[in-house]
Write a structure and sequence with these properties.
globular, 4 helices
Length: 161
């Protein structure tokens, strides 16, 4: 299968401005996601979607695609990441007629993700060919229940009705 990684990384954030290039273990936060994506060796392309020239430069210096800056209307707090993915895939379809079999969305706010986790997810996806795949983990009881899901019959069900 042909996989593409899309890493959405806008410059502003309500909670922590410029978080995607703030230092985490002496490197910009986005560095860790790009590094894991590269090390996984799963992707025909790794694409960063951003509205920041600083993030664009970091991405290009690491050897991944960041050809176009995201338009302002796709950079706000309330923008659905689905629209960002559609925007970037439409750009690459028009630019080089690139259409992957599957898109892997890698959020830069998960810097501890291992490249082996990405590789295993791609293997599972290739084998079973589901409509989608989401990685999850058990969390401590003190996490915010509004953001938790229960696993029922191989589906994630929101605890927040």
């Amino acid at each position: 299968m042909r996989f593409v990684a899309i890493i959405p990384a806008r410059k502003n954030s309500k909670g922590l401005p410029n978080k995607n290039y703030k230092l985490f273990n002496k490197r910009p936060l986005i560095y860790w996601t790009i590094k894991s994506a590269i090390q996984s060796k799963c992707f025909e392309k790794i694409i960063v979607s951003t509205d920041s020239t600083k993030i664009q430069k970091i991405s290009q210096n690491m050897g991944v695609e960041c050809s176009v800056l995201r338009p302002k209307e796709l950079s706000g707090d309330k923008i659905n990441v689905h629209k960002v993915v559609i925007h970037i895939m439409n750009f690459y379809k028009k630019k080089i007629n690139f259409q992957p079999d599957a898109i892997v969305l890698l959020q830069p706010t998960s810097p501890l993700r291992e490249h082996s986790d990405i590789r295993n997810c791609c293997k599972i996806f290739s084998k079973f060919k589901p409509d989608s795949l989401v990685s999850v983990l058990k969390v401590p009881h003190n996490f915010n229940p509004k953001n938790l899901y229960l696993l029922k019959n191989n589906y994630l069900i929101s605890k927040n009705k």
